[in-house]
Amino acid sequence: MEAKVLEKHFRVPIVKFDSPNSNGRTYPSEILPKLQKLCDDKRFCGIPAETSFRDRDIPLEKIGAKVESLEVIDNIVYADILLLETPSGFILQELRRTGELAV
Hints:
alpha+beta; 2 helices; globular
């Protein structure tokens, strides 16, 4: 039996400008430079949702994904995501493999 190779790169919509999201928040398009800077500085990362850390307090092993690039299409920001080889990254990879990763 061959091992299944998991695609660790994928694209997801992360923000629709000027429209309320599922939490009722509305983000203006003026935040794009801030998002782009985080991406360019390699500081735009993700952790599993059940964990909560302040921005600067995230232990590196808790980071499970990083945003490699952004693109805006029709007022929607799409992020190209890479799942990392970290404990949290492995959790996200398994959730993606089973179809349970909510993005």
